[in-house]
Amino acid sequence: MSSYKHKKVISIGTVNELTGLSLRQIRYYEERELIYPERTKRGTRKYSFSDVETLLQIADKREEGVQTYEIRKDLQSSNKGKVMERMLRGQLNAHFRMNK
Fold first, then answer.
1. Which own/partner pairs from 60-65 qualify as long-range (CB within 8 Å, at least 24 positions apart)?
2. What is the pLDDT of residues 37-90, one digit of tens each?
3. Residue 99 and residue 74: Cα distance in Å, rounded?
4. Does residue 20 sit in helix, strand or coil?
């Protein structure tokens, strides 16, 4: 079951209110491949709570002068680590369930 934090249910207007970022900034970060909202059949963007957290981290880094390509590199390496951690956890769970 997927965590509520990862469900894409939040509109761009709500993300704007939660983060204080302009609609243009949010769209720009999508263009720069820093976030990946889902699109409805009508093309409406939908974000998750984890996307909102990521946007806040991006905003903080941008205020510090970090360029978007550097942020993307950091996010990609962070995501690789999370994927490896989930894979390892899954392997351990599978192994110990089989041995019970």
1. none
2. 999 999 999 999 999 999 999 999 999 999 999 999 888 877 655 656 666 666
3. 38
4. coil
DSSP string, 29-41: HHHTTS---EE-T
Backbone angles phi, psi at 11, to 5 degrees: -75, 160
d(CA 17, CA 5): 18
The dihedrals phi and psi of 10, each to the nearest 5 degrees, come to -100, 130
Give the C-alpha separation, 22 to 31, whole Å: 14
Q: Which pLDDT does position 6 carry in this prediction? A: 87
Domain locations in the chain? 7-98
pLDDT digits (tens, 9 = 90+) for 9-43: 999 999 999 999 999 999 999 999 999 999 999 99
Residue range 7-98, CATH number = 1.10.1660.10
